[in-house]
C-alpha cells in the first residue's frame, strides 16, 4: 500500500472548514489524523464531520500520536506557538496567511524550519495559479528586462467582516464561522492589511523575487477600529519599486479587483487573478493574450494543502515558502508603523546577496 501523509489541522474555523478540511479529507495521499481547536466541542464536531481519527484542544497532544505535517488555521495572532511546536518536533508545517504579525517571529520560524530540515509552507493560494507561475518564469528569464515599476490593486467587499458581521461567512460549504474578533480586533490582526493586503504584497514578491528595503504606507484605521483600506510604496534592493492599493470597502465581492501591472525596460505584464486573464508584451512584439483560466483554476484554494501533503511524500516542492511569508510580514508591519509614525520605515530582511535566507544575518537585520 502506498504511504499516506499523516496530517493534523490546528484550527477548525471558517476557512479551515470551508477549504482545508474538505480538501484533506478527499485527498487520497492523506490521512486526516487529528483536528485541534481550543473549543473542544468544535474539534469533536469537525472530527465527526471530516472523519478524523482524533480531536484535541492542543497541538502538543496531537504531536504525540505522530504526524507528518500540520496545517495551522488559527486566528492571525495565534499562528506562532503551534507552528513552532510542530517545527521543533520535526514536522512539516503550512501556515495560513498572514504567517504571523511580528517579523521577529516570522524569521524565527524560518530559522527553526531550516534547522530541523522541515518544509515550511504558506497558505497563499495565488502562487499556485498557472498564470502567476508563468509570469514568474518569464521574469526570471529576464523577458521584460530590468524591472522598474510594479502596481498591485486588491479590493473586495470585506468591510462587514471588519465591523463584526459574520453573515458574509455563511457561504455554501462553510460549516463554521470565525471568532468575531479575528477580523475586528487589532490585537488579533484584523483589518484589511493582514486579511487582504497580505495577498497582493505576497503575490508581487513571489512574482518578482524582490527584497523590500523601505516602506511608506497609510491605513485608514482609528484607535477603535481596524483599517478597511490602505496604500503603500515598497522600495527594493534593485531599481524596482512597487505601489499597492487595497480595500475591503467595495459593495459587491463578485466584482472584486485583483490586478497586477509590472513594467520592465523590455516589456510589461498585465495580470488579473480575479478574472483569470493575462497579457504580456515584449519589446518589438505584439501584445500577447494568454489563454484565460477556467473559473475553478483562477484561485486554486485546495492546492495549498495538496502541495503540503505532496512534499511530505516527495512528490512536489514548496511553492509559497516560509521566506515569502516572512518577507510579507516585514512589509505589513512596516506599513502599519509607517502609517502610525507618518514616515518611511527601513527594513533589512536576513536575505543574502544570492537571495537566500541566512540566519547569520538575523542579528544585522530588523529582527
TrEMBL record:
<dbReference type="InterPro" id="IPR051450">
    <property type="entry name" value="Gfo/Idh/MocA_Oxidoreductases"/>
</dbReference>
<dbReference type="Pfam" id="PF22725">
    <property type="entry name" value="GFO_IDH_MocA_C3"/>
</dbReference>
<dbReference type="InterPro" id="IPR000683">
    <property type="entry name" value="Gfo/Idh/MocA-like_OxRdtase_N"/>
</dbReference>
<feature type="domain" description="Gfo/Idh/MocA-like oxidoreductase N-terminal">
    <location>
        <begin position="6"/>
        <end position="124"/>
    </location>
</feature>
<feature type="domain" description="GFO/IDH/MocA-like oxidoreductase">
    <location>
        <begin position="132"/>
        <end position="267"/>
    </location>
</feature>
<dbReference type="GO" id="GO:0000166">
    <property type="term" value="F:nucleotide binding"/>
</dbReference>
<protein>
    <submittedName>
        <fullName>Unannotated protein</fullName>
    </submittedName>
</protein>
<dbReference type="Pfam" id="PF01408">
    <property type="entry name" value="GFO_IDH_MocA"/>
</dbReference>
<dbReference type="InterPro" id="IPR055170">
    <property type="entry name" value="GFO_IDH_MocA-like_dom"/>
</dbReference>
<dbReference type="InterPro" id="IPR036291">
    <property type="entry name" value="NAD(P)-bd_dom_sf"/>
</dbReference>
